Amino acid sequence: MEDLPSQEKLISFEDLASAKGYLPQRPNRGDFKNVSHILKGKGSNGKPINLRFDVKKIKNLKQSQDWMWIEFKNSNGELGWVHGDSHFVVFERNLDFVVVNRKELLQMLSSGKKVRYDLPFVNLAKKAKYRIYKRAGKKEEITQINIKDIKSLESCQIWLKKDAASE
Question: For every residue of the chain, which 3-state class applies, written as one string?
Answer without folding.
Answer: CCCCCHHHHCCCHHHHHHHCCCEEECCCCCCCCCCCEEEEEECCCCCEEEEEEEEECCCCCCCCCCEEEEEEECCCCCECHHHCCCCEEEEECCCEEEEEEHHHHHHHHHCCCCCECCCCCECCHHHCECECECCCCCCCEEEEEEHHHHHCCCCCEEEEHHHHHCC
